[in-house]
């Protein structure tokens, strides 16, 4: 594991905040009839106009700036002109940037139009599990404490599927560093969390079974039973003395964009106090 200096943490924070700013701008545009290709081109231009580099494009051969996963697509969906957004879709959009040699990474699931209440519940609960995981990300705890927090709520309390094949990860000069951060596991297991470690926590939760497979494009991961999946991600830095983690990314601008876009539905918080511990309500400008 690579522990970062305070200066390196700030460099990664700048990259993470540009990611969420990009996702917020995408959220202003989303509507039925748009395509993945359109928002991907917009996001690449936006990132480059801010003097940064798209973090995903070209990495491992990835052809796009965004990864846009629609409904039963869990993660790594490739945006193109054939990916047309429809009323009732959920779109899990993952984005990365490189700023001053450091990566930023975050994701959000957008709900387009008349999404069913069952699927809205999936999104609310997946987002809630993200903050439960973040709350367990404290110095002296272990990776398994994060994993258990996510799994216990989503799988054991809600009856959802928790994807096993894909996990969160460390973050820094590389997009994927040690340690892996699974969304399933036992408390007290895994590497010890220490101050200066940056990790991306990203629950990937399905409405049905946990089983997934890869499409023929070699990228898109979909549920085997065809049921929808949600994906939310924050990058956090572990702080000293067991204090709450330092949130590097920020979903608040994304949610403000959603509230102002009549084509989208907002995913509310199940525990406002928990979320506010990490992201206080944005002040009215």
In short:
This protein has helices at 6-29, 36-49, 117-135, 143-157, 252-259, 272-278; strands spanning 53-54, 66-70, 73-75, 90-99, 102-112, 161-162, 168-170, 177-181, 198-201, 204-206, 212-214, 221-223, 229-231, 234-237, 246-247, 264-265.
What this model shows, in words?
By secondary structure, the chain is of the alpha+beta class. Helix content is 31%, strand content 23%. The protein is built from six helices and 16 strands. Strands 1, 2, 4, 5 and 16 form a five-stranded antiparallel β-sheet that branches. A hairpin with a 6-residue loop joins strand 11 and strand 12 (221-223). Helix 1 (6-29) packs across helix 2. The longest helix is centred in the N-terminal third of the chain and has 24 residues, at 6-29. The model has no long low-confidence stretch (mean pLDDT 96).
Major sheet: size, sense and barrel closure? 5 strands, antiparallel
Number of strands: 16
Q: How much strand content do the residues show?
A: 15-25%
The average pLDDT score comes to 96
- Low-pLDDT stretches: none
Q: Termini distance?
A: 40 Å
The run of helices and strands is: HHEEEEEHHEEEEEEEEEEHEH
Gross morphology is globular
Number of helices: 6
Structural class: alpha+beta
Please state the CA-atom Rg, rounded to the nearest Å.
17 Å
Helical percentage: 25-40%
Descriptive tags:
alpha+beta; 31% helix; 6 helices; 285 residues; five-stranded antiparallel β-sheet; globular
């Amino acid at each position: 594991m690579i522990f970062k200096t305070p200066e390196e943490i700030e460099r990664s924070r700048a990259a993470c905040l540009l990611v969420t700013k990009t996702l917020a701008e995408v959220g202003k545009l989303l509507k039925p009839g748009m395509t993945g290709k359109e928002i991907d081109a917009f996001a690449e231009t936006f990132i480059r106009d801010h003097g940064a580099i798209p973090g995903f494009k070209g990495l491992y051969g990835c052809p796009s700036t965004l990864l846009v996963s629609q409904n039963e697509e869990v993660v790594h969906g490739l945006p193109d002109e054939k990916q047309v957004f429809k009323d009732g879709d959920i779109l899990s959009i993952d984005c990365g940037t490189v700023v001053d040699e450091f990566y930023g990474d975050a994701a959000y699931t957008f709900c387009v139009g008349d999404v069913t209440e069952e699927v809205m519940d999936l999104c609310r609960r997946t987002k809630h599990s993200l903050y439960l995981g973040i709350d367990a990300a404290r110095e002296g705890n272990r990776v398994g404490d994060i994993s258990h927090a996510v799994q216990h709520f989503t799988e054991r309390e809600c009856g959802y599927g928790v994807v096993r094949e894909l996990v969160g990860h460390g973050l820094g000069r590389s997009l994927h560093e040690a340690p892996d951060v699974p969304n399933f596991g036992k408390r007290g297991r895994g590497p010890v969390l220490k101050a200066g470690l940056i990790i991306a926590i990203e629950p990937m939760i399905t409405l049905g079974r946990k089983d997934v497979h890869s499409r023929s494009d070699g990228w898109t991961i979909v549920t085997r039973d065809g049921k929808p999946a949600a994906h939310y991600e924050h990058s956090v830095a572990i702080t000293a003395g067991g204090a709450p983690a330092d949130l590097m990314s920020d979903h608040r601008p994304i949610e403000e964009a959603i509230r102002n876009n009549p084509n989208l539905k907002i995913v509310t918080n199940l525990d406002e106090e928990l979320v506010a511990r990490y992201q206080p309500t944005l002040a009215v400008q």
